[in-house]
């Protein structure tokens, strides 16, 4: 029997698998390939509210011909009403694959340890690998390549930034990040990047304007994530000066694109007008959650092989 695969981090994929998934997602988006997951089932376990994650996973499984069941916090109570090992054991008897959107990364790790089916991290406080897949597909579509591009990330060194740094390093995209003191990417993230790299180029730069100079993509995320509401006032003060503006984009490369994983807080991390600017690729980025997650599901369910990089 083939050993089951879990994707809890973007680094759980090899470089060739990551490249293959991006290519497969593009083929799925164009309709060039149509894997059949008829008879297969996906369970989504959510501890946090969701728009893009829920709809993209549910529609992806439907388009593959499978079925999806969504379980919110009131139904599961992961770690409170029922321990992760029991949730994992029961769902392993019902469905073929599990994706979980959790508060604490340890919970998705526990699900993976006790499940006999593949487990996907649909978001945790440590990483957001599914978002990075969509980000990389968006870059590939816009520029026709990944290797040699430069992405500037302005804001919190959070789960999104951590997965993105890893994904960029694995595909040869230069990654620069500018964060206020105390909110930088942690040293463990840089160590992980150095071990998972195709062309390691990750820089921490203090000045948020300097980080954008010549960049092919400028990326930001909310300053206060779900679960950090009590820190909101403190974070607003700390991130003063780290807003992405039209002036920020003007200092980047001529063909720069703006990226944001959404939801966006206009007037905070992103100035009014940037999300709607002609350089904004945020809706393409959101759409690509569907195609990259469809590719990931098809791969983990064994209904599609990964194409080779060309």
Description:
The chain has 310 residues and is an alpha/beta fold. The chain folds into 2 domains: 130 residues, Rossmann fold (3-Layer(aba) Sandwich); 158 residues, Rossmann fold (3-Layer(aba) Sandwich). Helix content is 39%, strand content 14%. It contains 11 helices and 9 strands. The strands form 2 sheets. Strands 7-6-5-8-9 form a 5-stranded parallel β-sheet, with helices on one face. Strands 2-1-3-4 form a 4-stranded parallel β-sheet, with helices on both faces. Strand 6, helix 8 and strand 7 form a beta-alpha-beta unit. Helix 1 crosses helix 11, helix 2 crosses helix 11 and helix 4 packs across helix 5. The two termini are 30 Å apart. The model has no long low-confidence stretch (mean pLDDT 93).
List the helices and strands and how they pair.
Blueprint: H1 15-30, E1 41-46, H2 52-63, E2 67-71, H3 73-76, H4 84-94, E3 97-101, H5 105-114, E4 119-123, H6 129-143, E5 150-154, H7 159-171, E6 174-178, H8 187-195, E7 202-204, E8 217-220, H9 232-238, H10 246-250, E9 257-260, H11 282-300
Parallel strand pairs: 1-2, 1-3, 3-4, 5-6, 5-8, 6-7, 8-9
| Amino-to-carboxy terminus distance | 30 Å
- Oligomeric state: single chain
CATH class of the largest domain: Alpha Beta
Strand composition percent: 5-15%
How many DSSP E strands?
A: 9
User: What is the CATH homology-level superfamily of the largest domain?
Assistant: Aspartate/ornithine carbamoyltransferase
Helical segment tally? 11
CATH topology of the largest domain: Rossmann fold
Structure classification: alpha/beta
Structural domains: how many? 2
CATH architecture field of the largest domain:
3-Layer(aba) Sandwich
